[in-house]
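Quick illustration, no need to memorize.
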Amino acid sequence: MDHFQYRDGELCAEAVPIRRIADDVGTPFYCYSTVTLERHYRVFTEALTGLDALVCFSVKANSNLAVIATLANLGAGADVVSGGELKRALVAGVPADRIVFAGVGKTTDEMAAALKAGILQINVESAPELEMLAQVATSLGREAPIGIRVNPDVDAHSHVKITTGKRENKFGVPLADARELYRRAAKMKGIRVAGVAVHIGSQILTLEPFREAFRRTAELTQALRADGHDIRWVDLGGGLGIPYENETPPTPAEYGALVKSVIGPLGCRLILDPGRLIAGNAGVLVSRVLLVKAGATHDFVIVDAAMNDFIRPTLYNAHHAIVPVRESADGAVSKEVEVVGPVCESGDTFGRTRRLPAIAGGDLIALRTAGAYGAVMASAYNTRPLIPEVLVRDDAYAVVRERISVDDMLARETLPKWLATGTRAKRKAGR
């Protein structure tokens, strides 16, 4: 459920008409609903009632400070995968002892920052990384609390680019090698073994991959305890899918029941890091139609948003519902069109065969379920500036990331001395 609904014929974000924001802020822009974010967090945490569980929002799904702060105010922690995300989480008000640092390639500077901040846990993904972390921790006179991420070789049956738990993936330590790496870790100065971590992918639509991964993780945890390790934490990652089109993923309640049955008996404190589940349909991308172009086989609706603003349809062939901001009348005739952006790439398309009511230049559209992996994956391709992000709460809204201008972008670039001189000379000669 989300809070982007039609009221009196106009699509609204909670109680704010989308058109009003578009008129004030310009297009394109991302819009997030506070009530939806809060509801999704509560539904997920309630599904874990009875467990000692910490929900760490996956910052890579949506790293806007206002979004992170909204969830932190509810008690959420943060799962981060870079030094930049670590800083964002801290600035947004997430307590350091509720932050987990994951990711397959951490720099020594990132490790040092995490240790100095005093975060809850660093998830180690390889033997070389463990050695690096031990050296950094020792040099700082600190002890690094770690969980080792294991790769359980479980197919999540998700998109190939977001599957992370198969043995051919770059993530984690092979399950067969885990006990030996834990044995080494326990002897290292600067390292404190605290937990086990696993994560098999994203947008997972059945419980079976979770069941198998959790079963293997539980068996490993029991074996590690038998080896003498004090395993207090089990980080189960995230990955529970959401409906974009016609998917029917398991509910948080069903997922929670599985966690309780398979992992609950271990008596560990649990870490879970949903991202998409919380932020996905809490956001929309709003765009204005530039023009409608007649094509040989169908019309093209060309909008002012592009693949650089929202790359999921291009990168993953992802489906996002596209709706007009002004509600179409009952019985209005619809037409099959292709909704595309202005970028000079054939892949710059948001929907190849979509039925939309009569639409014209100047009309507003919204791409639904755009709150996760939208703004965070945007780029400045074609020298197109990053677009604003807006957070709504009831009948009020705030711009929580301003639109970047082309001048802002150019101000970050400089010409080397030998080019700057020649350029000035050419400009002078051209006057």
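The chain has two domains: 4-31+280-410, 34-279.
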